[in-house]
Amino acid sequence: MPARTRKKADESGGVAVGDRDPALLRRIHEVMVLTRAVEDRMVAMYKGGDLLGSLYTGHWHEAISVGAASTLRPDDYLAPIHRDLGAHLWRGMEPWQVMASFMGKATSPTGGRDGTLHYGRLDLGVYNLPSHIPANFPVATGMAFASKYREQDRVCLAFCGDGSTSRADFHESLTMASVLKLPNVFVIENNQFAYSTPLRMQSNSETFAIKAVAYGIPGVTVDGTDALAVHDAVAEGVARARAGEGPSIVEGVTMRMHGHAEHDSADYVPKDMYDEWSKKDPVELFENVLIEAGVIDAAAAKKVREDAKQFAIAARRKALADPMPEPSGIEDGVYAD
Amino acid sequence: MPTDSGQATYLEAVGLALDSEMDRDPDVFIIGEDVGQFGGAFKVTKGFLEKFGPRRVVDTPIAETGFTGLAAGAALVGLRPVVEFQFADFISCAFDPIVNVLARHHWRTGDPMPVTMRAPFGGRLRAGPTHSQSVESYFAHVPGLKIVMPGTPEDAAGLLVSSIRDNNPTLYLENKYLYRRLRASGPLSLEPIPLGVAKVVREGRDVSLITYSAGVSQGLEIAEELDKDGISVEVVDVRTLVPLDVETIVNSVRKTSRAVVLHEAAKRMGYGAEIAATIQEEAFWHLDQPVVRIGARNTPTPTSPPLEDAVIPQPAEIAEILRKVARA
Description:
The structure holds two protein chains of two kinds.
Chain A: E1 4-5, H1 22-47, H2 62-69, E2 77-79, H3 85-91, H4 95-103, H5 136-149, E3 156-161, H6 168-179, E4 184-190, E5 193-194, E6 197-198, H7 199-202, H8 211-215, E7 219-223, H9 227-242, E8 248-253, H10 271-278, H11 282-292, H12 298-321
Parallel strand pairs in A: 1-7, 2-3, 3-4, 4-8, 7-8
Antiparallel strand pairs in A: 5-6
Chain B: H1 10-24, E1 28-32, H2 48-52, E2 57-59, H3 64-76, E3 80-84, H4 95-109, E4 116-121, H5 136-140, E5 146-148, H6 153-165, E6 170-175, E7 199-202, E8 207-211, H7 214-228, E9 233-237, E10 240-242, H8 246-256, E11 259-266, H9 271-283, E12 292-296, H10 305-311, H11 315-327
Parallel strand pairs in B: 1-2, 1-3, 3-4, 4-6, 5-6, 8-9, 8-11, 11-12
Antiparallel strand pairs in B: 5-10, 7-9
């Protein structure tokens, strides 16, 4: 099963809208815009000193994160990473709660016990991962295993970065999932850098999708700034997983437009890379696609942006006002009853 | 399949308890290397594949991180995995999912994490530095893990039942030297034995021997010998290191005023240090002697018999220390 690179569907550079459900397209667009608005707001919060530690953002990951998550059913599982605010929001995560996590507030999903990017909620089917990415990969195989064990057709979608592919977790999970034919889709968000380490120092493989060949599963590389390209590729993997045919890899190629986190000025990134990739803003690109296809008009697009901005402002207000946690019960819950 | 002969070995007790829990709860499954068609490296799961099928008896590639993390994910959504590590030595390959995924997940999120990790550990089988390790201390330092170390076939059964039913990640360490050397004295009860309850396995007056796992049967034999010399040893089986039953240990030391702590793990930073420190915190004014720790020398475990015997505490050495402490 050779790895593929998906061709563009049309000359204008973007997978065609075709006869897709306009409601789904609008929803993908809204969540992408909201993702950007919340992250831009949080960058301002970081600079203004609202946040505790650093801030990990997913600028230019919106198409991958939302494009992929939007292929799932509500009862499917998700194991995202720190570039995937969009996937969390797709599942119903509240922006104020994400901000609360970066502030150590009592109202964060972990009540301030964990913080920053560790805000996944199992009630939304989302695994809350530790820092050791891709430690979420083995866990994702377990969620998929449980689905198969119970003869359900739930799928687990897991994300990692280009750097993650070097770790044992990646290889062991892909091995386990392919041998046990688990209903997983593994999305590799190739954003050119793992902290400061560029691709050429991370992997000697031509692509990341090509690794699928070694596991005997399908692998495809798509334009990670094209939400529909990602959506289609992941949907294919999800359908395959749901049908009991096992896992697959989708590599979305994009660029990490901020530092590893906001403390990182990323001076090691060549300026021309930023110049080149700044022309490929996934949120703008998708907005243009929808306007050109007549799914939304310019006024509607403007309203989506403005609503998202106001929503992010309100989220900040709530998160700021929320209480800090009480230390009195800190030893509770080390063990479950 | 294991059947209870009325004198089940320690190994059979593990298998019987696992079989019983898999009968009882369809969410329990066993996963690990060679556990299915081969029946496990030590044959704990012999016949399980035939009885429960490949859905619940899962052979895996050699991927400790992979299958331990898989167990975490399965547990998160309601299953109760039992992971078999072929040797406890290989558990280091899964240190990351155990420490960073399993152990702290509940405290971070409130989600239960019911994973039992079975691992045969320990020396005296001439298996050398990377097939003989005692790993309990690596993990006793990690909040969120329970650590279970049965010393008898009866406890091996009842404590495994409790471990599987527990909603926390539990490291259940099987002493492989005991596998075929100890037999139950009658039909096994497969009722749960609560975690965190130590047991005074022999009453005595002069000195408390606080121990676990293989130290229990070893300690009982030594205590019988010393009894002939008029030295009365109380043997306390800790049974679970986490949670630790401080009360039973301290009550014993208050009674005898002397304590020796024994394990086959290396003495330096071994779990005996925690027990000794706890005794001095809780029962200092009852002590007539400093608490003495007995453990292996601070070397890797050697292969060759004279070398291994020189490293792991031997009965004569243990008896000598008990005699000295009791008479001092």
